[in-house]
Amino acid sequence: SMSSSPPSPSPARWFKALRTRLGEPCLKTYPLECVDLLRRARVAFQAGRTVKENFRLAQLEAMVRMLEEHECDFVDALGRDLHKPRFETVVSELMLVKNEALHAINNLKKWMQPQHVERNLSTTLDECLVLSEPLGVVFIMGTWCSPVQMCLVPLVGAIAANCAIISPSECTAHASELLHRLIPFYLDNECFHVILAGTNDLPEVVELKFDHVLFTNRGEGSRIAQAAARTLTPVTLILGGKNPCYVDKHCDIATTAQRVAWARFHNAGQSLVAPDYILCHADVKERLVQALKCCLMQFYGSDPRESRSLGRMVNLEIFNRARDMLWRSGKVAVGGQVIEAEKYIPTILTEVAESDPIMQQDVFGPILPVLTVNNVDEAIAFINKQEKPLCVYAYSSNSKVISRLMSETSSGSFCSNDSVLQSLMVALPFGGVASGTGSYHGRYSFDTFSHRKSCLLRGTRFDCVTYLRYPPYEDRNLSLMTWASSLSQKSQGWCQIL
């Protein structure tokens, strides 16, 4: 059989070797192996291995155990990949996934129950249900911004219903390696697999035909979507985009600066949900920039390079892109020191023009451009001129301003007087409008990976109105049906007909 022959490194050496800590090339997943893992997961799914609630609960509990027992390993791996401080790893990667898993454990029974649909006249004696049916084998591709969270939060939703293959990002080799090593020890070996693949090879994997594909990453989104379309595979794409942050003249500048600075410089700005640029009311610009400067001092000290709380960018390619944009945009107000060897670049820019390079593409780095507007209308017009972002942020103590921004702009999510938190809530769906399709988190993940099957359960005892449907067609029957239908629309007169 194919799976027993040695994996062949063609076509064109599909998966590049990733490097482990000691520098020797590590495991790579060859195409044949991929085909084999998918086949194994299919067989397990078709055998009904994942159907039982207690199987799913056991997997979710195992995931929580994995995060608890290997906290140090995750901290270490993300420290190597992203220079990520322990605090950030524990809070924004591990705790987040753990909460998601515990939420699923507590609610799984409820999610799995059939939902009853309101009855109407023609179905008074029948039962109408919507059943959540697992889709099958799903493919989850993570991203390097939050390598653990972006793989495991969707995986929680998949475990709640399906088999899954996950592909962590090749950019964060240590974290990917760790997931590849740990998951087989904790999760079912037939239903859940980790593959290590290069970004360029993902479209070919997608073409192997899964039942659903979930992907979080800007650059490759359209290639993945095209590959999925070729096999008519449904997709959930979370792609990011430039998230605007409006700062009104009526707002608490100190708190605003703190919350914006935290959101932008957290994980060295490598986030799909961080504010990408500030649209600041001209009257408060000077005060805001000054306050942001003070915050960076508070957070990272007088020399942020020495700070143990500031991450670094993931690789030189992304660092160089950010540096090139930085040098051709606006004027440095804070920071501006660029050290290639350390992938270090935290900066606040002012006097940025809409046409500057930094406003033309996503900034995955600790750079915050500040633009000015003269009023709320200008801010709303500016936001609506761009592509619909994943998030819109608005800071104001005036609730009218907040509700205008919320209702007059369109985005995946909206948050007032804070940043990022809306994307972490288990109870809120996380997804975009133009920046992708579909969403996940909590119940929404479960629904993303389930098919909602409509079921009508009838008896054969007797037909009330429905016997009028049979030929030969009579005008009398038609007018009776029309009458019955109009009655049921007014939702009264049940008894007369029965």
Give a topology summary:
Blueprint: H1 31-46, H2 53-69, H3 71-82, H4 86-112, E1 115-116, E2 127-134, E3 137-141, H5 149-159, E4 163-167, H6 173-186, E5 192-194, H7 202-206, E6 212-216, H8 221-230, E7 235-238, E8 244-247, H9 253-265, E9 277-281, H10 285-300, H11 316-327, E10 331-335, E11 347-350, E12 367-373, H12 376-385, E13 391-395, H13 399-408, E14 413-416, E15 430-431, E16 436-437, E17 439-440, H14 442-448, E18 450-457, H15 475-489, H16 494-497
Parallel strand pairs: 3-4, 3-6, 4-5, 6-7, 8-9, 8-13, 9-12, 11-12, 13-14
Antiparallel strand pairs: 1-2, 2-18, 7-16, 10-11, 15-17
InterPro entries: Ald_DH/histidinol_DH, Ald_DH_C, Ald_DH_N, Aldehyde_DH_dom, Aldehyde_DH_NAD(P)
GO biological process, one term: aldehyde metabolic process
Keywords: NAD, Oxidoreductase
CATH homologous superfamily annotation of the largest domain: Aldehyde Dehydrogenase, Chain A, domain 1
Average pLDDT taken over every residue:
88
Approximate strand percentage:
15-25%
Low-confidence stretches: 1-25, 493-498
Please list the strands of the largest sheet in the order they lie side by side: 10-11-12-9-8-13-14
Distance between the termini: 63 Å
What's the CATH topology label of the largest domain?
A: Aldehyde Dehydrogenase, Chain A, domain 1
The second-level CATH architecture of the largest domain is 3-Layer(aba) Sandwich
CATH class of the largest domain: Alpha Beta
Class per helix and strand makeup: alpha/beta
